[in-house]
Amino acid sequence: MEKKDGKKSGEVRRKRKAMKEQMEMLLTLPLKNTKLKKQLQEIGINEKEIDNQMALIVSLYQTALRGGSNSVQAFSYIQELVEKKEEKKTDLENAKEILVKIKEVANNDTNN
After folding, report:
1. Which of 19, 45, 77, 90 has the most CB atoms lying inside 10 A of its own CB?
2. pLDDT in tens, 51-91
3. What is the pTM of this model?
4. Rounded to whole angstroms, what are the CA distances from 23 to 18, 35, 57, 88, 90?
């Protein structure tokens, strides 16, 4: 029984991973909807930055601005996305500081 559960769990994880990869690929594809593409350009988004992901983000942003029942959810999700980006930036800054310190230590060791 446990062996079957383990196989099933592995299968579910593989399917989730495949779906994530497929969604990431889909989001990075160029936006084909010319009407929506024009609207994104009109609000100031550079044509090179317009893809399915940008269209989705702008849609989320517009939902938050529109008000109504979904606006609070959209705003909360935007806030969550921004906070995750800031956390990653902080992690990157910490990593850079650590690398600088490692280089300093390595240089001191070679000079002594």
Report:
1. 45
2. 999 999 998 888 888 888 888 888 888 888 888 766 666 66
3. 0.61
4. 9, 23, 14, 21, 26
